[in-house]
Amino acid sequence: MADGGEFYVGYLAMPPRLARLLRLAAPSLIVLLAALGLALALVQNDPGDGEWHDAAAREFVGRVSARPYPHVRIGAAQSGGATETLMLVEVGKFGGGQRAAALDGRVVRISGWVLERDGRRMIEMEPGDSLQPADSAAGVGVAPDLRRVGVLGRVTLRGEIIDSKCYLGAMKPGEGKTHKECATLCIAGGIPPMLVTIDAAGKRGYILLCGADGGALDERILPFVGDAVEISGELEEWDDLTILKIDAGAVRRL
């Protein structure tokens, strides 16, 4: 060059000064990028330990009910310790309402894939005839219908409204703003909505959200899905479920 400076040409040897600069800059740049990647990873929300056991379907025998949301009640012999309520959903973003309603109150045989998180489980039913009346429940036992075992009174709770299928393991993360659109579509399709609360010790609570009449919530809840909210309602214990009966129009975004 006219001023005597060094100029790099790809097919020629690298000028000494440029080579020295790269030897100093390259390691520093690598360390900087690694530190940036670590910092970004540390500030991400924990996606949780939900699991979707989609490698092999399982079969259960239990009593199916359509209210407040489609579920099946199984006995201790199948749950591994106590009677259990398993919510029912279809493949994709749909609840199991149509099939469950047709067999409401009957003992059924059901096959599907289990989703679970923090001891709570759900069944994604296989397509086709995977939900059928059972000839007998001998040997496995069937839990009775859901029973209200406690009325805790009117409460005001804070937390996030999530769709239970994604949160239990279908998606990671299954919560937060990044999941808001997906969760809204799932709940609109019949997936049971839940309120996830976190106490001072960091322990999470899982509360099924129902209408004031004890049935499924209507579409007024949808704008608040995926947001931090404050909800007032009647808190009740129904066997292994905690249920909050609310008026969907009374939810307040925080």
How do the helices and strands line up, and which of them pair or pack?
Elements: H1 16-42, E1 51-65, E2 71-74, H2 76-79, E3 84-89, H3 97-102, E4 107-117, E5 120-125, E6 131-133, E7 148-163, H4 164-170, H5 180-188, E8 193-198, E9 204-211, E10 228-238, E11 241-246, E12 252-253
| Percent helix | 10-25%
Low-confidence stretches: none
Into which percentage range does the β-strand content fall? 35-45%
Q: Count the DSSP helices.
A: 5
- Overall spatial form: elongated
Q: State the secondary-structure class.
A: alpha+beta
CATH architecture identity of the largest domain: Beta Barrel
Strand order of the largest sheet: 1-2-3-5-4
- At the first level of CATH, the class of the largest domain is Mainly Beta
The helix-strand sequence is HEEHEHEEEEHHEEEEE
What would your notes on this structure say?
There is one protein chain. This protein has 5 helices and 12 strands. The chain is an alpha+beta fold. It has 2 domains: 83 residues, OB fold (Dihydrolipoamide Acetyltransferase, E2P), CATH 2.40.50; 106 residues, OB fold (Dihydrolipoamide Acetyltransferase, E2P), CATH 2.40.50. Strand 8 and strand 9 form a beta hairpin. The relative contact order is 0.15.
